[in-house]
């Protein structure tokens, strides 16, 4: 294989990686914890938080804070899993590149 062919292959691989990463960045992941739902973009930007207020009592503020934290972490974990699943074929087991 000559250098020019290798460069073309590397460029195609780079374009494929960027395309996959862009798709992940735009996807919305939904994390849930009891009566809290959080939506996060693949960039881990929180775009929406919903609270089912019917099930919330005034004394439950501390619990609500914990549930929001759990829901955000759940959504972020989904981002990490999909990123590893889709980008792992490019990084060959070298975590943390994306």
What is the CATH homology-level superfamily? Nucleoid-associated protein YbaB-like domain
The strand line-up of the biggest sheet is 1-2-3
Main sheet: strands, sense, barrel: 3 strands, antiparallel
Instruction: Just give the CATH class.
Output: Alpha Beta
Q: Helix coverage percent of residues?
A: 55-70%
Class inferred from helices and paired strands: alpha+beta
Provide the number of structural domains: 1
Radius of gyration: 19 Å
CATH topology: Ybab, Chain: A
Please name the CATH architecture.
Answer: 2-Layer Sandwich
Succession of helices and strands: HEEEH
Quick one: overall form? rod-shaped
First-residue to last-residue Cα separation: 29 Å
- What fraction strand? 15-25%
Number of helices: 2
**What number is the mean pLDDT?**
83
Instruction: Count all strands and give the number.
Output: 3
Low-confidence stretches: none
Description:
With about 100 residues, the chain is an alpha+beta fold. The chain has one domain (about 5-85): Nucleoid-associated protein YbaB-like domain (Ybab, Chain: A). It is built from two helices and three strands, in the order H-E-E-E-H. The protein has helices spanning about 5-25, 60-90; strands at about 30-35, 35-40, 45-50. The mean pLDDT is about 85.
Question: Would you summarize the structure shown here?
Answer:
This protein is α+β, with helices and mostly antiparallel strands.
């Amino acid at each position: 294989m000559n250098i020019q062919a290798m460069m073309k292959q590397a460029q195609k691989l780079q374009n494929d990686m960027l395309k996959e990463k862009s798709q992940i960045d735009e996807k919305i992941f939904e994390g849930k914890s009891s009566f809290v739902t959080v939506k996060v973009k693949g960039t881990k930007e929180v775009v929406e938080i919903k609270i089912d207020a019917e099930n919330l009592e005034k004394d439950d503020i501390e619990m609500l804070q914990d549930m929001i934290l759990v829901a955000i972490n759940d959504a972020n974990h989904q981002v990490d899993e999909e990123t590893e699943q889709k980008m792992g074929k490019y990084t060959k087991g070298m975590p943390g590149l994306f």
